[in-house]
Amino acid sequence: MSKQKPKAVVLLSGGLDSAVTLFFARQRYNPFCLIFEYGQRHNKEIKCAKKIAAEAGAEYFVLKISLPWKGSALLDKSLSVPSVKGRPSKNIPITYVPARNIIFLSYAFSFAESIGAKKVFIGAHIQDYSGYPDCRPEFLESFGRAANTGMKNSRIKIEAPLIRKKKKDIIKLGLKLAVPFELTWSCYQGGRKPCLKCESCYYRMQGFKELGMTDPLLEK
Amino acid sequence: MSKQKPKAVVLLSGGLDSAVTLFFARQRYNPFCLIFEYGQRHNKEIKCAKKIAAEAGAEYFVLKISLPWKGSALLDKSLSVPSVKGRPSKNIPITYVPARNIIFLSYAFSFAESIGAKKVFIGAHIQDYSGYPDCRPEFLESFGRAANTGMKNSRIKIEAPLIRKKKKDIIKLGLKLAVPFELTWSCYQGGRKPCLKCESCYYRMQGFKELGMTDPLLEK
Predict the structure, then answer these.
(1) What is the band of B1 on the pLDDT scale with cuts at 50, 70, 90?
(2) pTM of the prediction?
(3) Do B114 and A146 make contact, defined as CB atoms within 8 angstroms?
(4) Is the sign of the CA dihedral A102, B105, B155, B130 positive or negative?
(5) B14 three-state secondary structure
(6) CATH class of the domain at B7-219
(7) Helix B100-115 and helix B137-149: axis angle, to 10°?
(8) Which positions in chain A have a beta carbon within 8 angstroms of at least one beta carbon in chain B?
(9) Which chain A residues touch B154 with a CB distance below 8 Å?
(10) Distance of residue A173 Cα from the nearest chain B Cα, in angstroms
(11) Which helix (H) or strand (E) holds B34?
């Protein structure tokens, strides 16, 4: 029998990026996923996340968290998710949820210390951090340092294997790792089919298009 | 009419320290409290926290959060809260909850940004940080830096007005600020009366004793 792999915590949203991150992580680690139900409009993600975790053979927790202060279009149904016209803007989008990744990473560090994991994987990447400040590499590095200062086990490292990749390259990596793309959900709207208009759909479509492929989600 | 005070978020546990912190903060700020229900054994704290917030005229949210990974005597009823024999040890106590303040502060930053507050108050202090790594001043400073790197509004500051104070001095400050000590709850056990044996009771008793006072909680 092969030596048991070390444990790692993986933040799993049900989107394409975190699915690729999970399949990447499980090459070398025994992944334990954290799935957050935080009142997001695209709640469908959560079902997808569970299926993806099961497909990867990973254990998971679904944590219901409450962010009663609204003001993000991802949480507040009175705000509308903007459609992308041309290229997405470089400003912080209205779908930004204040401190979302800070909260997610905090739970991940708590979980990691409790199970003795030394790695926390997150699917943040270059296209995200143009708009979302909590996807920036300097944030991830700074958070890792801070969290380790505040914990008993001060050797937990954040891994963001997609950080420098564009969507096209993330999809390419996912293909290599046999990620079940048809189980992933990226659209910010919680519809039956992706809206193909929001920023998240935009980047996903672009990625598949640049590879000359059709998104398997659209083939179903 | 006097100029409206700026908003501040206050982490309120229902214990003596956070109550003093709230009454300190409200001198200059309009306080918005965050109270966490995280499966703590001393759930009684939460009722106390609500009463203290009301007494201070502060708005508050109670957030129910789940930390399904156990292993701390504060969460796990199969572990017992140790009694203090002589002086408490300088090691990390079994009541340590991994990343607790990291999680609390993350929510506080999210809340602060949403309501436009520039300060986050926490009642961490010198006696705590001998044992709890997430009460250390270097952690608080490092966390503040990290969180600001990951947010839109990057000017939110952590205030820990008790950080260098001993329990005696915290109580003295509380007396000056007319903190209703009889509404605060410090004991880690959730009994009707304080156990007077746990570390939290130990420090509280010491503090009142050093001032030649009786804890008003024991007079009721």
Answers:
(1) very low
(2) 0.90
(3) no
(4) negative
(5) coil
(6) alpha beta
(7) 50
(8) 61, 63-71, 92, 96-103, 105-107, 109-111, 113-115, 133-134, 136, 138-139, 142-143, 145-147, 149-152, 154
(9) 133
(10) 27
(11) strand B30-37
Q: Do B103 and A100 lie within an 8 Å CB cutoff?
A: no
Enumerate the domain spans of chain A: 7-219
Report the Cα A187 to chain-centroid distance in Å.
Answer: 13
Could B101 and A66 be called an inter-chain contact, meaning their C-beta atoms sit closer than 8 Å? Answer: no
Distance from C-alpha of A55 to C-alpha of B69, rounded to nearest angstrom: 23
Q: How far is B144 from chain A (nearest CA, A)?
A: 8
Rounded CA-CA distance A204/A174 in Å is 13
Burial of residue A96 (CB within 10 Å: 0-12, 13-18, 19+) is: buried
Question: Which of B101, B106, B142 lies closest to A102 in CB terms?
Answer: B106
Q: Do A99 and B110 touch (CB under 8 A)?
A: yes
Q: Directed axis angle between helix A100-115 and helix A137-149, to 10°? A: 50
Q: What is the pLDDT of residues B197-207, one digit of tens each?
A: 888 888 899 99
ipTM over 0.85: yes
Report CA A209 to chain centroid distance, whole Å.
21
Of B70, B103, B151, nearest to A133 by CB-CB distance is B151
A32-36, A181-185, B74-78, B105-109: the lowest-pLDDT one = B74-78
* Structure token digits, residue A106: 């905090």
Mean pLDDT of all residues in chain B?
87
* C-alpha triplet A45, A48, A51: angle, nearest 5°: 155
DSSP B183: G
Segment B138-166 mean pLDDT: 92
